[in-house]
Design brief:
single chain; 276 residues; mainly alpha; globular
């Protein structure tokens, strides 16, 4: 393993438990703070638009801090640190069309999941109501989905889980898939699971090849920005409906974009990135 200023930690089930423990402690702290506020000021902060954003931030920050203090520092004698270096323009030219292609493909696959019926119908109603609660305030939605989520989620799923699995000796492609599946499962619903897994694989590939966590963060933010704009202006998270084109055309364009830029990024782009 090459010498690096970044800690060469590994990720195991113990690390997963530590992350979950940190997430629980952070969210519980915010909940107890809300109870204290209700007792003193007779006001429930849960009805504030920014409360969900605060709760998410607290949970993610404590999860990352727990992993740093209980896993990384004891095992590597270094603090948790990541490479956030920018890259050359040509790399961005390759990865954004690659991401757009997978976004189109994932939309087509997600559209095949039922939204009606005895099980899916009720679950989809519950999921839609939950999402509506999160999108009442466009500013809060943008801050949460486009800025906070990409930063925290990429640190955890690509920076900690994927990198930790690779450091443990797991083959890179398997680590990318495992981290992406976990990323999909935590979304808690089948309509976001498919897209999260597929897009997670693109994010994982970009991180593995460039060694910079900045790039998957930018791609993740771009994906969430597109979704937020679609929800805000079309009330529907669908490129097909927004562009007034068939789902099959969207799928075909997605396959062409993804295949072409995957080939260019993986096969033709010979720039070597190292994490030193």
């Amino acid at each position: 393993m090459e010498s690096s200023k970044y800690p060469q930690f590994t990720f195991t089930w113990i690390g997963g438990v530590v992350l979950l423990g940190g997430l629980f402690v952070g969210t519980m702290f915010v909940s107890f703070f809300n109870i204290f506020w209700m007792f003193v000021f007779k006001e429930n902060l849960q009805f504030k638009d920014w409360f969900f954003m605060l709760s998410n931030a607290a949970g993610f920050l404590t999860a990352i801090a727990f992993f740093d203090f209980f896993i990384v520092r004891p095992t590597t004698k270094r603090k948790l640190n990541f490479n956030f270096s920018p890259t050359n323009f040509y790399t961005y030219f390759l990865i954004f069309p690659l991401m757009i292609g997978m976004m189109f493909i994932s939309e087509f696959i997600t559209a095949q999941i039922p939204t009606t019926g005895p099980f899916f119908g009720k679950y989809y109603e519950f999921f839609s109501e939950l999402m509506n609660q999160l999108t009442d305030d466009p500013v809060v939605m943008i801050i949460t989905a486009v800025i906070m989520a990409p930063i925290f989620e990429e640190i955890i799923f690509r920076g900690i889980i994927q990198k930790g699995l690779i450091n443990k000796g797991v083959k890179p492609w398997k680590a990318i898939v495992y981290a992406s599946i976990i990323f999909g499962l935590v979304h808690g619903n089948p309509w976001q699971l498919v897209g999260a897994v597929l897009l997670g694989c693109v994010l994982g590939l970009v991180y593995f090849k460039t060694k910079s966590l900045l790039l998957p963060m930018l791609l993740h933010g771009f994906n969430n920005l597109c979704s937020s704009l679609l929800i805000t202006y079309t009330k529907n998270e669908s490129f097909s409906e927004a562009l007034k084109v068939s789902e099959w055309i969207l799928l075909a364009v997605g396959i062409v974009l993804f295949s072409l830029f995957y080939y260019l990024f993986r096969k033709k782009y010979k720039v070597h990135y190292s994490e030193i």
